[in-house]
Design goal:
two-stranded antiparallel ribbon, 87 residues, 10% strand, single chain, globular, 38% helix
Length: 87
């Protein structure tokens, strides 16, 4: 959804990444997958950012890690801002 918003808003889109500090915070925001260890939450957040960057910059993107798996995404979600909107 971010790439079209970046195009429609003429670069008015930014990504706010929130790792979460409290289990209830994660439950309220709809993620529903609390990780008890801070290290695990930071690993998942880093993977998420790598997936977004890959989908915004590569024509054929694959990613296989602990929390996220993308198998040859055939669609490029290109943004106006290069290489991607700010995080």
């Amino acid at each position: 959804m971010g790439a079209p918003l970046d195009r429609i808003s003429n670069c008015g889109f930014a990504v706010n990444i929130v790792n979460g500090c409290w289990k209830r915070e994660i439950e309220v925001c709809g993620n529903g997958v609390w990780l008890d260890r801070n290290d695990d939450r930071f690993i998942r957040m880093d993977e998420y950012m790598q997936v977004m960057k890959g989908l915004w910059t590569k024509d054929d993107f694959s990613f296989d890690c602990l929390y996220y798996n993308v198998d040859h995404s055939p669609v490029r979600f290109e943004t106006i801002r290069k290489p991607w909107p700010p995080f």
